[in-house]
Amino acid sequence: MSWPELTDVALRVTGAFVAFLVLPLLVGQTEHKVMAHMQGRLGPMAAGGFHGWAQLIADGVKFLQKEQITPIAADKTVFRLAPVVALLPYLLIFVLLPLGPDGLVAQPLDIGLFAVLAILGVGVVGVLMAAWGSANKYSLLGGLRAAAQLLGYELPFVLAAASIALAAGTLSLAEIVTAWQPWWLAWQLPALVVFFTAGLAEIRRPPFDAPIAESELVFGYMTEYSGLRFALFLLAEYAGIVVISALTALLFLGGWRGPFDDALGGVVAAGWLLLKTFAVALAIIWLRVASPRLREDQLQRLCWLVLVPVALAQLVLTAAVIVALG
Amino acid sequence: MSRLKTPGLITGLATTARNLFRRAHTRQYPKVRPDLPPRSRGVIALLEENCTSCMLCARECPDWCIYIEAHKETVEVPGASRPRQKNVLDEFVIDFSLCMYCGICIEVCPFDALFWTPEFEYAEHDIRDLLHDKQRLRDWMPTVPAPVTTDVLGEPAPEIVAAHAAAEAEGSAR
After folding, report:
1. Are A240 and A288 in contact (CB under 8 A)?
2. Are A48 and A95 contacting, i.e. CB atoms less than 8 angstroms apart?
3. Ramachandran region, residue A71 (left: φ > 0; alpha: ψ -120 to 50; beta: rest)
4. Which one-letter DSSP state was computed for residue A295?
5. Is B28 in Cβ contact with A45 (below 8 Å)?
6. How many angstroms separate the CA atoms of A236 and A18, rounded?
7. What's the rounded Cα separation, in Å, for the pair B131 and B105?
8. Residues of B in Cβ contact (< 8 Å) with A306
9. Considering only CB atoms, which residues of chain A are within 8 Å of chain B?
10. How far, in Å, CA of A210 to CA of A198, rounded?
11. Cα A239 vs. chain centroid, distance in angstroms?
């Protein structure tokens, strides 16, 4: 490798890493404030002076200082590895998500969508490791719920993504955005709804947070975690929000394409993508505030009796429209 | 199932969205002083000059948190046939760790020596410091708010009725 290539790679990876560290914090802070105001509160006001902007930094410092307890009965290696396994897939996905046209991506990949969906599935392993390694009945129950939920919702999630890939005729995320047309919003609407809903379930956000369900399971598979490891799980959750929002925006909302045509530069394009991503993230936060947690059986029924049939029907519709258009 | 759930979810989304654009209810207390009504029961102030050590407050107090010490002094009034006796207040203590803020002492005081004030920031690290002595109770006096004006449509205060009746009786006697 020559020097220019090396700096290029270093720049791209650093960019993805910085985004990985900054965007989840932004979403987290937005959640703090938006959720508070939706509930008639102010949220954090002290940290950092101006409207508590530094709250999450303060939280991070606090987590760093805390003791990391490993239960005596825990399977120590598995227990310690679990947060890393839960977090790393999202970091990898950040590398694959395009930010704008013309290769504005850390690692362009022809099978980007396939790779992203495959890596997203690894998160289940982290959750199961945490659940089993903790040697705690609540953790185990939470982990089993998470496994059932993640495996179940993986299906409509992938089917909805398959529909858009079919429509665009490519698995490359960048090319899906290029092929996207505004009227697809109507054509792919069921897929969008299914993808978003299943995505919520994939990252175990309310109303699909039965694996955590603090009123029943203490804190689910995260019960025994403290200090930095717990912070890693939290970071994984917010990175998950960013990933699901960005994927929804890229696949179904036209990614970096704005209403005034695409002649504008890469920065404007990236701005559009970030705007759409944050809009979807806001919707995820909004749903958390407004909707109560689904019971375990309701959660499974929604998946198998509503989302999977809808996703399959959407797939048929997509195929029919493609054939009709020739 | 989801057909039944949807309206509730929509209502919830609408309510939370509406709330987002309303003012929050949070009072930022240590930074912003609370706006307390003038008759708030914060702490009890003592106007020592009005106290005659009659002990009514101490006797009426339901949990006996008022301690009064006084002695009698003889006052020689020039020209009077015999010396008079006068109570002198030595100590007046309210134990705010016992006080239940019923306000009976203030109600029964015949000489208007006790007052409510809205001040409430007198928490202590040591429970013994919640004993407010004569001087400390006196120091609360400047924080006593002006008496609330009576309702223009309501009945006049009994003192005013009595005063008017007396004035009229005097006028008609002349």
Report:
1. no
2. no
3. beta
4. P
5. yes
6. 15
7. 16
8. 2
9. 34, 36-42, 45, 286-287, 289-291, 298, 301-302, 305-306
10. 14
11. 6
Do the Cβ atoms of A286 and B13 come within 8 Å? yes
Q: Which residues of A touch B28 (CB under 8 A)?
A: 42, 45
pLDDT digits 0-9 by tens, A249-269: 988 888 777 777 655 666 777
Q: Which amino acid makes up residue A244?
A: I
Instruction: Compare all CA atoms of chain A with the CA of B8 and give the residue at the minimum distance.
Output: A291
Nearest to B97 by CA among B75, B118, B123: B123
The ipTM, to two decimals, is 0.71
Contact assessment for residue A315 and residue A163, using Cβ atoms and an 8 Å cutoff: yes
d(CA A223, CA A214): 9
Alpha helix segments (H runs only) across B32-150: 56-60, 104-108, 134-139
Q: Which token pair is A176?
A: 């899906």
Q: What tokens does A121 get?
A: 């599935």
Within an 8 Å CB–CB cutoff, is residue B17 touching chain A?
Answer: yes
State how far the Cα of A284 lies from the Cα of A27, in Å rounded to an integer.
Answer: 10
Amino acid found at B31: K
- Burial (0-12, 13-18, 19+ Cβ within 10 Å), A244: buried
Alpha helices in A73-111 (DSSP H): 76-96
Q: Provide the 8-state DSSP code for A58.
A: H
The alpha-carbon gap from B22 to the nearest alpha carbon of chain A, in Å, equals 8
Cα of B160 to nearest chain A Cα, Å: 47
Segments in chain A below pLDDT 50: none
Report CB contact under 8 Å: B17, A38.
Answer: yes
pLDDT in tens, A265-309: 667 778 888 888 999 999 999 998 888 888 888 889 989 999 999
| Cα B134 from chain centroid (whole Å) | 16
Place of tokens 């959660």: A299
CB A233 within 8 A of CB A86: yes
Place of tokens 């969508």: A113
Rounded to the nearest angstrom, the gap between the alpha carbon of residue A248 and the centroid of all alpha carbons in its chain is 9
- Chain-chain contact of B12 with A290 (C-beta, under 8 angstroms): yes
Q: B72 — phi, psi (to 5°)?
A: -95, 140
- Pull the structure tokens for residue A235: 């970071």
Q: Locate A287 and state its tokens.
A: 């749903």
Which residues of chain A lie closer than 8 angstroms to B19, CB-CB?
A: 37-40
